[in-house]
Design a protein that fits this description.
The complex is a heterodimer.
Chain A (H helix, E strand, L loop, with lengths): L4 H25 L5 H41 L5 H39 L2 H7 L4 H38 L5 H10 L3 H27 L5 H32 L4
Helix pairs in contact in A: 1-5, 2-3, 2-5, 3-5, 3-6, 3-7, 3-8, 5-7, 7-8
Chain B lengths: L18 E12 L2 E12 L3 E5 L6 H9 L6 E6 L2 E2 L5 H9 L1 E4 L11 H11 L6 H14 L15 H13 L5 E5 L7 H18 L2 E6 L2 H7 L2 E6 L2 E6 L1 H5 L4 H7 L1
Parallel strand pairs in B: 3-8, 3-9, 6-7, 7-8
Antiparallel strand pairs in B: 1-2, 1-4, 4-5, 9-10
Helix pairs in contact in B: 3-4, 3-5, 4-5, 5-6, 6-7
Chain lengths: 256, 258
């Protein structure tokens, strides 16, 4: 049986990505650990993304609240607005939107950076300098992306709720304490845990895909651009696939 | 003298000289394209050997096989008396501390200052130094290439010739016994190219290094070559000094010297 070329290409990329991910775990578990570079990457990745994630988070919370209010008013449950916004942000919108922004900002930057290093032989130069470039460049970046995205999602959720609080008060008056009590009281363990766990998976996916695309970019500046672009596209698709799987698993184990 | 007919084994080695690099029957293919076919050559201690050949014949592949960035499909590469195919990762790293590599594109880390670029090999090879010693080593390497004032500059602030010199300084900082130069004058104007060629000779005179220089810049070849190996069709087509090859009647050899 011969598969069409597109399917073979898809299976080929999936296989290579899986091997790349396997190598990440294998190399990452062996000493020597690049701790200093990991901290540097955590700082760079977290710091670079924070302003954008914060801004979009705030707008997201504000807009979501303003869009939800008319429907809730129609059903006479306007008082449930903070609870609904809180659940929507914490369970789904916060993690997914933050991960998509993270993929656009960090995935493309990792893809372009490693692609450019590959084209200009900097990766070879590291190897000649007694450095395992996979460990120094890939393991640290993937680990930093995996660790930093959950932190960014928590911050983004907090900022989104600030935006939501502003949204609630545009057409009404609700105290800060009441707003937050309503949000917190309506959140359960089953809302927070799966949402938090999937952010690690999103970060891992963005890191692995960005590094894979950059590390394997073809020669030339065109290859660097393609690496950056395709890492964003592929990361975004994979984020939705992971989200779908996590929701199904959460449902199966009864956390919904 | 038509050296094209000379078998490789007839290369004369002075009694006291010992090969620091021995390449024996190396094959390297990329898919169906065989780049190196039964390639053999040696480099003696303190010798500068230029590997000459047309673009795309596998000159860069050859030196990448020597430093272990690529693995030869067949054959052996003996570097400082050790077959690199038998070395594990740690042993290869130790070997690389003794062998410098000047990349065609310089390969300076563009996110680091010149100082950090030079410190990188020292740190990665776990060479135990104090801060003062490291500063002194960086300064010495930069003074060797006449660019001590660039220590805190970023690579993007440097000209092409300066980048080449800094890359050479980074190669020199570990005081390697062998230096592999991948087209050191490509992309440089003739004056800067001449300066780099002179620098290669100065380095050899000061540190008694052995070198393989990949080039098709005949000015650089003339200035730096103790011996020339002509790589053609994946094989060591002929070998000899610049004077010997420039007098050759072989049409393949002549085209490089016309």
């Amino acid at each position: 049986m011969v598969f069409p070329a597109k399917i073979r290409q898809f299976l080929g990329v999936t296989g290579q990505l899986s091997r790349f991910a396997g190598r990440f775990f294998k190399e990452g578990s062996k000493p020597r650990y690049e701790v200093a570079e990991l901290f540097r990457q955590c700082y760079l990745i977290g710091n670079r993304s924070l302003p954008l994630v914060g801004l979009t988070g705030f707008i997201m919370g504000l807009v979501l609240t303003m869009q939800l209010r008319p429907s809730l008013v129609d059903y006479g449950v306007e008082s449930q607005l903070p609870a609904m916004v809180g659940i929507a942000i914490v369970r789904e919108i916060g993690p997914v939107i933050t991960a998509l922004i993270f993929a656009g900002k960090i995935g493309s930057s990792i893809g372009a950076e490693l692609g450019s290093m590959k084209v200009t032989e900097q990766i070879d130069a590291m190897e000649v300098s007694g450095t395992n470039p996979f460990k120094y460049l890939v393991v640290t970046r993937v680990a930093a992306a995996t660790l930093m995205l959950p932190v960014l999602v928590v911050l983004s959720d907090g900022i989104s709720l600030m935006g939501a609080y502003l949204g609630v008060n545009i057409r009404g008056v609700t105290s800060f304490t009441l707003f937050y009590r309503q949000v917190i009281d309506n959140l359960s363990f089953g809302d927070i845990l799966p949402a938090f766990v999937k952010t690690f998976l999103f970060g891992l996916a963005v890191g692995i895909i960005g590094c894979y695309k950059g590390y394997n970019s073809s020669k030339g500046t065109e290859g660097v651009g393609r690496a950056a672009n395709s890492s964003v596209v592929l990361s975004s698709i994979v984020i939705f696939i992971i989200d779908l799987i996590v929701v199904q698993v959460t449902d199966l184990i009864g956390l919904n | 003298m038509n050296t094209a007919t000379l078998p490789i084994s007839t290369i004369d080695h002075p009694e006291e000289a010992r090969p620091v690099i021995t390449i024996e029957h190396v094959y390297k293919s990329f898919g169906t394209n065989t780049v190196l076919k039964d390639f053999c050559m040696t480099v003696e201690k303190g010798e500068n050997v230029v590997v000459l050949g047309r673009s795309g014949v596998g000159k860069s592949v050859l030196i990448k096989c020597i430093i272990g960035l690529m693995k030869a499909d067949e054959g052996s590469v003996i570097l400082l008396d050790k077959d690199i195919n038998g070395l594990d990762h740690e042993e290869m790293d130790k070997m690389r501390a003794r062998v410098g590599f000047l990349f065609q594109s310089n390969a300076l880390y563009d996110s680091m200052t010149v100082r950090k670029n030079l410190e990188f090999p020292l740190r990665r090879h776990w060479i135990e130094t104090t801060r003062e010693e490291m500063d002194a080593m960086v300064l010495e390497a930069l003074e060797n290439v006449g660019l001590a004032h660039t220590v805190d500059m970023m690579p993007e602030e440097l000209s092409g010739g300066m980048k080449k010199r800094i890359a050479l300084a980074r190669t020199l900082i570990l005081k390697p016994e062998i230096i592999l130069y991948d087209e050191p004058t490509t992309g440089l104007d003739p004056v800067t190219g001449k300066e780099i060629s002179m620098l290669i000779m100065d380095v050899q005179a000061k540190y008694h290094t052995s070198s393989i220089i990949i080039s098709h810049d005949m000015h650089c070849v003339k200035r730096t070559a103790g011996r020339i190996v002509l790589l053609m069709d994946g094989r060591n087509y002929c070998t000899g000094t610049y004077e010997e090859l420039s007098r050759s009647d072989d049409p393949v050899v002549k085209q490089f010297f016309e």
